[in-house]
Request: fold
Amino acid sequence: MKCQSRYGLRQRHRSCNGVRLVTDRQTSIRRPVQAKGVGLHTGAEVGIQICPAPAYAGIVFRRVDLEGFEIPASPEYVAHVSYATALVHKGVLVATVEHLLAALYGCGVDNAIVEIDGFEVPIMDGSAAPFVELIQSAKVIELDAPRQYLRVLKKVEVVDEEKSMALSPAPALSIHCTIEFDHPLIGTQQREVVMADGAFAREIAPARTFGFLHQIESLRKMGLVRGGSLENAVVLTRDGLLNEEGLRFPDEFVRHKIMDLIGDLTLLGRPILGRVEAVRSGHAMHNALVTKLLRDAQAWKIIEAPLSQWRMADGGWRI
Reply:
């Protein structure tokens, strides 16, 4: 797959090696990188190529199997948010985008074209780590444009019985997530992450998607998880798990939920200056929070980081 480049980029070639850095300039990648795998839900083989893009392009999916039809990674194109997040534009679909989007956000990539020759992003090993490694190999570069941030100005909250999410003002993106499952390996898990100093690649990206063995048959009857296996998911039995290698972290489950959340927040299009508190949330609630935030013009604003700004100890900006 060869990148169908439509852009001439002026690039500042200071690499950040895929580690999340606070920078005053927008970013992209230095060179195209490719990967192949199967779709978690379709089971179909699919190839992707992540290509450089200019400032202000954002993240755009390009269906190269459909004459290069493009779908921006934007809330207005969110179509399905049950077992994964999908984007649709004029009837053209790109599904299961959240792990790749989380990796791009976690590696600090603001602008990229994701070329894909099918309609579902490959699941890889069930985590974002393969995508992080791919982006690291491409090298993250700065572009000749000031970086834009979405600054949260006031608390925005969504509640659905025992599930809730809130987004509040903060100098950097931090996430506190709580999950609850009636399973001896999960129970109640909580974790907090501040998106600075490589925390995503180190603490969140390796966490794999997970599912329950007793649900697999019914999900497949619904046309889902046809590509799922022990190579790309943690599969839980009634009181344990099938994966012989065990877990990557004792709290791998809540870490993966944080990764899904980051991927869905990436649809906002800019790095976020705010704090997220999530309790038993999922893709639908993530999308509801994003929608509610954007509808309240007093709750957020877009700011640019001038070259004279300096970094705070907690990874945020004094603005």
